[in-house]
Amino acid sequence: MEAPSGMLQWLVEIQRDIYLTFAGHIKAFAAGGGWTALAAFLPMGIGFGAVHAMTPGHSKSVLATYLAGSSSGMGRSLMVSLVLSFTHVGMAVMIAALSLPLLSVVLGSVGRAPLLEDLSRGLLGLIGLWMLWRGLKRPAHAHRTGQDATVGFMAGLIPCPLTLFVMTFAISRGVPEAGIAFAVTMMAGVAFTLSAVALITVFFRIQLVRLLESRPKLIAALTRSMEAVVGAILVAVALNEVV
Questions:
Q1: CA distance 150 to 87
Q2: In this structure, what are the phi and psi dihedrals at residue 201, rounded to the nearest 5 degrees?
Q3: I want to staple 92 with a disulfide (CB 3.0 to 4.6 A). Which of 102, 118, 159, 205 is the partner?
């Protein structure tokens, strides 16, 4: 789900402007400014998170692919996107808040976490193998809520780089609470975009099933095939990063 180059550049510029503005607010807050000025800017974090989640990454493709091959309804698809959003932003907050020296151990370069990326893709690969096996056997079974939450958690293990930047900047200024406040609002924006992706995917999947509802055997075969294909894609993604 790559954005066109022109739109991507526009999204990047917006993110940069918001980040620089927020950095200024963190400096003012650290210099003795009150919560009033900072709180007035925090709602922009929602827009920041929503725009940031539109850029490549953030497991949008994994989310859409998984939901396309699952039997999850609107409610459970929202749950997957919320778990993914919380984990994605929460991991960045946790890494920055636990210890700055940990950054040099876990992060191979600024804004990336190779160990967590490998863990996330490896676990998604296992889920893919399981889905592939389920898709190839009969009969097809409905996905359970626990599996949906697990996929959301695994896909979100890669920390949000911009949240990590903001948290690190706030901690370096001695005001981690400002970074956490921004992370919370940003998470709401990320969740908005990922939830939209989830709902749109499930909507079109449901419409396709309704078009074929007069042919139950075809639907059953299509459901198994989609699950197997999704499983194969997840395995391929995991293997592509390992090899």
A1: 11
A2: -60, -50
A3: 159
